[in-house]
Amino acid sequence: MIPKNEINDTLRDYDPKNITVGTIGSHSALNIFKGAKEEGFKTVCICKKENEIIYKRFPLADKIILIDDYSEFLDEKVQQQLKQLNTILVPHGSFNAYVGTNQMIDRLELPMFGNRQLLHWETNREKQKEWLQKAGLRLPKTFNDPEEIDRLVIAKFPGAMGGKGYFIVESAKAFHTKSADMVKRGHITKQNLENIHFQEYIIGVNAYPLYFYSPLTNEVELLGMDRRYESTVDSIGKIPAQEQLEIKVNPTYTVVGNFPIVARESLLPEILTMAENVVKLSKQIAPPGMIGPFCLETVITDDLKIYTFEISARIVAGSNVGIGTSPYAYLKYGEGMYMGRRIAREIKNAVANKELEKLVY
Ligand code: AMP
Ligand code: AMP
Fold first, then answer.
1. What global pTM score does this model have?
2. Full residue range of the structural domain in which residue 41 is found
3. Is 235 a domain residue?
4. C-beta 201 within 6 A of ligand 2
5. Domain count, the chain
6. Taking CB atoms and a 6 Å cutoff, what residues make up the pocket around ligand 1?
7. Residue 70 in contact with residue 47, Cβ under 8 Å?
């Protein structure tokens, strides 16, 4: 792991009046860039040629560094270029999915907004469970061995796969049949099956509260809430039951987009308290704990029990529903606040108070 004092050394070489906010071109990059521009920062986008069109049509990146492969992101040449621009990197789901948290923790020399240790906790299933459980959240039961399946479960794979390849089964027998079918249809690989785990399937509706924790003010802010739009599960209802049975649909959960939502106000005490507890615990498991955006992925049942099945310790793509504003951000900040901008605002405040070291790891 790159020691914090080395990151601080890099930061000391930076010109604090000339900080560039950088990220990989995908996932929530537009959100991050727009926010950075609105707070007066320069921006740099590290992206693959095929994604360049996004940052040309929405011209929010002052500089684009093209790479052929995500592994190049860690090359000395790219990191030097970013250092010269005084870049603070903002990590998102593509960092976990395409660069890998181990690689990042060990090789990424640049100051990164947030606590990189917590990305490790996020991507390790057992650690994640420990964190959420200790924070007192309600979790679905989990199983590792298919033979233990005794109820409706959702089969999952590690990493930020955005629900790709997930499927539902209710017994070991059904699991063996369905997983073979999923491999045959190319949704998953045989290798995926080695790392599979099962979570009790909670019947309810999803809500993904989008939070921001400021180490400068010690406050957890709720800045938005979303749910996902998933193919194919969100389209099943368009097919009559009879035909569903005939074609043996096996729904999958590939995320295609997100919807903003607003929760019943009486759910907010629990939604806010859950986040506070998660932040409190994060300070114990990976000091100094949470920094910036995070998201709890929940299912809420008809008796209003909130189950948390995952945490993301960084900006999530669902926060893109709030670009411009969201009801919750509006309630706190008035117009024009959203996750990308909130990150940039935090950096700006830290620069003004000479506290940038508190935000980057
Ligand atoms: P992409 O650059 O779109 O391939 O996304 C990078 C990673 O983030 C992938 O693992 C995606 O599954 C995940 N991801 C992208 N968009 C979303 C979203 N709207 N909700 C949840 N996960 C997402
Ligand atoms: P994930 O990629 O883990 O965020 O989950 C993708 C999809 O699976 C979302 O639509 C979730 O609602 C659904 N899901 C994940 N875990 C559970 C669970 N334990 N119970 C019900 N639905 C779940």
1. 0.95
2. 4-113
3. yes
4. yes
5. 3
6. 26-27, 93-94, 97, 160-162, 228, 255, 258, 317-318
7. no
CATH number at residue 268: 3.30.470.20
36: left (phi over 0), alpha (psi -120 to 50) or beta: alpha
Output the residue whose Cα is nearest ligand 2's atom 5. Answer: 163
Could you tell me if 307 and 299 are in contact, meaning their C-beta atoms sit under 8 angstroms apart?
A: yes
Token pair, residue 97, equals: 């999915």
Residue bearing tokens 């599960």: 233
Residue-averaged pLDDT of the chain: 94
Tens-digit pLDDT profile for residues 314-355: 999 999 999 999 999 999 999 999 999 999 999 999 999 999
For residues 55-91, one letter each, b for 16 or more C-beta atoms within 10 angstroms of the residue's C-beta and e for the rest, the string is beeeebbbbbbebeebeebbeeeebebbeebbbbbbb
* The last residue of a domain, from among 169, 200, 231: 200
- Give the CATH number, domain containing residue 102: 3.40.50.20
- Residue 163 predicted with pLDDT over 90: no
What is the Cα–Cα distance from 164 to 251, expressed in whole angstroms? Answer: 11
Q: Which of 45, 123, 255 to mutate to test the pocket of ligand 1 (most atoms within 8 A of CB)?
A: 255
Residue whose C-alpha is closest to residue 250's, from 189, 134, 166: 166
Backbone dihedral angles phi then psi of residue 301, each to the nearest 5 degrees? -90, 175
Identity of the residue numbered 54: I
Residue 157 lies in a domain: yes
Q: 117-141, pLDDT tens digit by residue?
A: 998 899 888 999 999 999 999 999 9
What pLDDT digit, counting tens, does each position of 49-101 carry?
999 999 999 999 999 999 999 999 999 999 999 999 999 999 999 998 888 87
Same domain, 34 and 103: yes
For 331, list phi and psi in degrees, rounded to 5. Answer: -60, -35
Residue 243 sits in the same domain as residue 307: yes
